[in-house]
Amino acid sequence: MALVPPAILSVFALGFVWVGTIARRRPHPLLLAAACILFAAGSSSQLLHWPADPGLNAMASGLAYTLAVLAACQGILLRSGMTLRLGLAVGFLLAIMGLLWYFFYVDRNLTARIYIQNFGYGAILLATALHLLPRRRTRTVDRVLFWVLLICALQFFPRTILTMGVSDISSTGAFARSLFWQMLQLSLAIVGAGLALTILAATVTDIMDELRRERDGDGLTGVLNRRAFEEQAGALLTGDGQAVLILCDLDHFKNINDTYGHDAGDQVLRRFGTLLRDSARAADLVGRMGGEEFALLLAEADMHRAHRVAEELRSGLEATRFPFLPPQSSLTASFGIATRKKGRNIRNLMKAADRQLYTAKAGGRNRIVAEIADAKTIRSLGRPQART
After folding, report:
1. Closest by alpha carbon to 32, among 6, 82, 67?
2. What's the CA gap between 92 and 74, in Å, rounded?
3. CA-CA-CA-CA torsion sign (296, 298, 302, 308)
4. What is the rounded CA–CA span in Å between residue 268 and residue 250?
5. What angle do CA 235, 218, 220 make, to 5 degrees?
6. How far apart are CA 294 and CA 51, in angstroms?
């Protein structure tokens, strides 16, 4: 029974190593694998009485446990883009190991060592959990990890207090049979394995999300590619809510590539992609349809908001100064807007917006053209195209 937790943690260590070989750009899986191995080593050291000297055994197992907890916390924080400060980690390590040394070699007190380790590890895990407090737009997997980590941290305190109060630790044999030791092994097998499984699942989810973003994203501008945009827009339009589509086309973009080179053209595309992402809300979709044409699908929006967003994009691009252009020159874009109507799917909506975009470009560019309710007339906004 006592060997079950080390065996489980060793299996999870192999799992994290496997994930680390897939996600080579992510350092935290290997840190988490190291944490599992260190914790299993600490537990095995106590169970197998190696080293045989009681003092060395207490210090060796304590060092392995403490490093395991610190490595686990660092790995969890790294996954979320945070880090455990080196000074804080070293401070925890020195404090715990110093107290363990004192209460073995100076004032031998097993009870004190038990409280130091359990409360110390609980405090480190609790501090890590508080750094991961769920925020707005937090994914489900991140919320689950937070609560599992919080439970894992908090259980150290009541479990230690309740079981130590009724445990006989007067001898090594009695300690091995004590309620504290049995509950510790049970908690490691259940709570520890649960935390390791949650972190492993979260890491695999991260990898899948990253692969999905690489598949769906446009590498140059950071928005969705056409296939992903049409797929997600089709799913969004299955409901009954309002939606407005804005098609955008950069004016005379071919001239930029021909005159200043493709690096200049890429710079313009990246900048316009940033403007689009900044204009979109969480529920909106932004995609690059190909070349210099982009689409912005506004969920739960009316034509008034679509006009406002399109005008912000138009004026924002026109006000942007690019280093390869003469000082007073600017780039412009044309916009076509269509609103969702009954029975209109994403392809029909794009055709309707494309008609308005064609009208905008035919009317002089650097303007916005949108459908109105009767679909027979259009409204144009914006100024004539500025020459570059």
Report:
1. 67
2. 13
3. negative
4. 9
5. 155
6. 67
Q: How many CB atoms lie within 10 A of CB 302?
A: 12
Q: Give 191-201 pLDDT, tens digit per residue.
A: 988 999 999 99
Query: Is 292 one of the catalytic residues?
Result: yes
- DSSP state, 192? I
Give 317-351 as a DSSP string: HHH---TTS-TT----EEEEEEE--TT--HHHHHH
**Class of residue 127 by CB neighbours under 10 A (exposed 0-12, middle 13-18, buried 19+):** middle
Q: Which two tokens stand for residue 183?
A: 């509950």
Number of H helices, E strands in the chain: 15, 6
Check if the beta carbon of residue 265 is closer than 8 Å to that of residue 256: yes
Tell me the residue type at 54.
P
Q: How many residues does the chain have?
A: 388
User: Which one-letter DSSP state was computed for residue 267?
Assistant: H
- Work out the number of other CB atoms within 10 angstroms of the CB of residue 161: 12
Nearest to 297 by CA among 346, 333, 334: 346
A 10 A CB-CB count for 328 gives 9
What is the C-alpha to C-alpha distance for residues 355 and 90, in angstroms, rounded to an integer? 65
Residue appearing with tokens 């686990």: 72
C-beta of residue 145 within 8 angstroms of C-beta of residue 132: yes
Say how many C-beta atoms besides its own lie within 10 A of residue 160's C-beta.
21
**pTM to 2 decimal places:** 0.72
Q: What is the dihedral of CA 157, 162, 166, 170, to 10 degrees?
A: 0
Contact 335, 371 (CB under 8 A): no
Interhelix angle 156-164/179-187, rounded to 10 degrees, is 160
Among residues 292, 293, 300, 311, the one annotated as catalytic is 292
* 10-residue mean pLDDT series, the chain (388 residues): 78 92 85 94 88 94 96 95 92 96 96 96 96 81 95 96 86 82 85 92 89 88 94 86 93 94 95 95 94 95 93 96 88 95 86 95 94 49 38
In one-letter notation, the amino acid at residue 144 is V
Neighbours of 186 (CB within 10 A): 14
